[in-house]
Amino acid sequence: MAERERPTEFVQSVQRALDVIKSFTPKHPSMTLTEVAERTHLTRGAARRFLMTLEHLGYVRSDGRQFSLSPRVLELGYAYLSSVHPWDAAFPLMERLSDEVEENCLAGVLEGTDVVCVARTSRRLVTVAVYVGGRVPASASSMGRAILAYQDDDVVETYLAETDLKRVTPFTLTDKEALRAELKTVREQGWSLVEHELEEGLTSVSAPVFGVGGRCVAALNISAHGHRLSRQDVEERVLPPLLRCARETSLLFGHRPAGDGAA
């Protein structure tokens, strides 16, 4: 997707400070000044000034050589989670689902061309995991398709026109007409199933979550490798409680289905 034109009021120093924060990842939880400068494409002097400022504000900590994020960074994400939808209140529903199907449950929202994980349970230890704040391509994930399927036609067409459908695995759907047809199927059946497209051997099923006015605002997901979760398991063991959890979460977020008598 093409980068949006910067407004005249754009403050580049804010962008660079955020770039410094985002440079810390699960693979790079602690870095030297030089490493931060390399990952953010800043000079050492600029990187040092941003790190010192963030450390003074409490978002970064240092042992004198290595820098890492402090727990205060969580405040930035929590401000979003608490102000948009009550994921704290939805979490017990996700935990109940997770316990029932004995798999991890994820919640994701659409952000640009990706789905961002906003909540997850930890029922199982997994070798490859999407943690809170992690991103996956919307087009190749069941969460992304579950959300996209319920967007207005113009939103979907804009997404398809501006998104490069990259091949993540040999099984990833990259044809836009085929994806358009798949989104239609997802909307008709009310859930999305993706096998091997995001990761070989991974089976993933998601259900949409609706908010006020019937707008699809998120998706709930159960994923596991094929030896634990076959298509038959999805349809018989996972799908019924997943759909129930999605309905309950939708009600929590203010969705009132037609015919329920609500105003």
From TrEMBL:
Classification via SMART domains: HTH_ICLR
InterPro entries recorded: GAF-like_dom_sf, HTH_MetabolicPath_Reg, PcaR_PcaU, Tscrpt_reg_IclR_C, Tscrpt_reg_IclR_N, WH-like_DNA-bd_sf, WH_DNA-bd_sf
Superkingdom in the source lineage: Bacteria
GO molecular function annotation: DNA binding; DNA-binding transcription factor activity
Residue ranges occupied by any HTH iclR-type domain in the UniProt entry: 11-71
Span of domain IclR-ED: 72-255
GO biological process: 3,4-dihydroxybenzoate metabolic process; glycerol metabolic process; negative regulation of DNA-templated transcription; positive regulation of DNA-templated transcription
Keywords: DNA-binding, Glycerol metabolism, Transcription, Transcription regulation
Residue ranges the record marks as coiled coil: none
PROSITE patterns on file: HTH_ICLR, ICLR_ED
A Pfam family of this chain: IclR_C
Function: May be an activator protein for the gylABX operon.
Record-given protein name: Glycerol operon regulatory protein
Species assigned in the record: Blastococcus colisei
